[in-house]
């Protein structure tokens, strides 16, 4: 039970202040235990952080797969739009997703290489889903080349990564407008590349 409480407290603190901005003593204090007691559950702050990252990736991937199931009957372009909104609509995300987004933008420097493996594996899962949807948009089966697919995937990731930064910079109305404009641009690119 204490391990779960520690993870929840750490998740909130890391999401708000990042890895460097949180000490083990703050985490312990927030659940009403002494700092040495943390070591009965986690070897280090780093281990706790990595476990939280793994949990956050699993949570977000599960939500994405649920979205894929819910939209299965829709046209591929509508499903891509749903995935775009899943990543771009940042007002209703969970603490785990907030923690994951913060880690993507500002990973702890000493953990960058290790975190990169987790995040790359996660992106590969997302890429599989997106690739299938992009090919589903093609006017003819197998009409989308590898280069075209890679261009569209690069554009998708660049847009959602850019929106992640913009979400913190702009008021809600301007953010929503930019989100819509970028979706229009992405949709045009998909139609042009796929002949759809």
UniProtKB/TrEMBL annotation:
Keywords from the UniProt entry: DNA-binding, Transcription, Transcription regulation
Molecular function terms, GO-annotated: DNA-binding transcription factor activity; transcription cis-regulatory region binding
Regions annotated as coiled coil: none
Annotation: DNA-binding region: 23-42
Alphabetical list of Pfam families matching this protein: TetR_N (PF00440)
Chain ranges of the HTH tetR-type domain: 1-60
InterPro entries in alphabetical order: Homeodomain-like_sf, HTH-type_TetR-like_transc_reg, HTH_TetR
Top-level taxonomic group: Bacteria
Family annotation (PANTHER family): HTH-TYPE TRANSCRIPTIONAL REGULATOR RUTR, MYCOFACTOCIN BIOSYNTHESIS TRANSCRIPTIONAL REGULATOR MFTR-RELATED
Protein name in UniProt: TetR/AcrR family transcriptional regulator
């Amino acid at each position: 039970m204490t391990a779960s409480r520690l993870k929840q407290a750490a998740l909130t603190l890391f999401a708000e202040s990042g890895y460097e901005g949180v000490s083990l003593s703050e985490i312990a204090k927030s659940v009403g235990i002494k700092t040495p007691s943390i070591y009965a559950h986690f070897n280090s702050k780093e281990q706790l952080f990595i476990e939280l990252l793994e949990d956050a990736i699993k949570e977000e991937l599960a939500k994405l797969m649920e979205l894929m199931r819910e939209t299965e009957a829709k046209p591929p372009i509508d499903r891509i739009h749903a995935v775009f909104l899943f990543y771009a609509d940042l007002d209703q995300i969970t603490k785990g997703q907030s923690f994951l987004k913060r880690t993507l933008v500002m990973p702890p420097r000493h953990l960058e290489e290790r975190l990169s493996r987790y995040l790359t594996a996660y992106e590969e899962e997302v890429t599989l889903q997106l690739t299938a949807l992009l090919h589903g948009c093609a006017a003819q089966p197998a009409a989308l080349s590898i280069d075209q697919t890679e261009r569209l995937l690069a554009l998708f990731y660049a847009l959602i990564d850019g929106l992640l930064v913009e979400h913190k910079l702009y008021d809600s109305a301007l953010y929503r407008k930019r989100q819509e404009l970028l979706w229009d641009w992405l949709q045009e690119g998909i139609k042009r590349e796929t002949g759809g």
